Amino acid sequence: MKINRIIGTNMELTEVIKDYVNEKIGSLDKYWDRIIDADVEVGLIGKHHQSGEIYRCEVNLRVPGKILRAEKTEKDLYKAIDKVKDHLQEIIEEHQGKMETKRRKGARMRKDIQSLSPLAMEPKEKDVRLDHQEQEDA
């Protein structure tokens, strides 16, 4: 999987942070090899006077036909990155389950149609009479 960009908002993006993001988000490849690429944004939300610094991590994964997105906030940037990775892992597994269900449902429907009529799945031959009438009309 390719990580297109890593953006730092309201904070300096160091090489250590980039390496950590590449390691964690890049490891999602082992859960599904059809991930095309990812966009990652990490940042400091603000300096809250009571809560302290709150960090945010957002990841958009592009997969065939869909974008999977997760966002988490934590007091520690590395915890936010870890939680986003864990959440995306759950989303990927859920998405794979939905795709498998659709595939099985389609196969089941095809099998049911075939069992009703073996001719239902055979390609139909073109009616020669229709072709002849279409040529006369033209």
Instruction: Provide the gyration radius in Å.
Output: 25 Å
Strand order of the largest sheet: 1-2-3-4
- Beta-strand share of residues: 25-35%
CATH superfamily: Ribosome hibernation promotion factor-like
The major sheet is characterized as: 4 strands, mixed
Count of discrete alpha- or pi-helical segments spanning 4 or more residues: 3
Order of helices and strands: EHEEEHH
| Overall CATH class | Alpha Beta
Helicity level: 40-55%
On the 0 to 100 scale, the average pLDDT is 85
The CATH architecture assignment turns out to be 2-Layer Sandwich
Q: Calculate the terminal CA-CA distance, rounded to whole Å.
A: 55 Å
Number of discrete domains: 1
Question: Based on helices, strands and strand pairing, what is the structural class?
Answer: alpha+beta
- Dominant shape: elongated
CATH topology group: Double Stranded RNA Binding Domain
Task: Explain this structure.
By secondary structure, this protein is α+β, with helices and mostly antiparallel strands. The chain has one domain (2-114): Double Stranded RNA Binding Domain, CATH 3.30.160.100. Helices cover 45% and strands 30% of the residues. It is built from 3 helices and 4 strands. It has a 4-stranded mixed β-sheet with strand order 1-2-3-4, with helices on one face. Helix 1 (15-26) runs parallel beside helix 2 (77-116). It is elongated and about 70 Å long. The protein starts with a strand and ends with a helix. The model has no long low-confidence stretch (mean pLDDT 85).
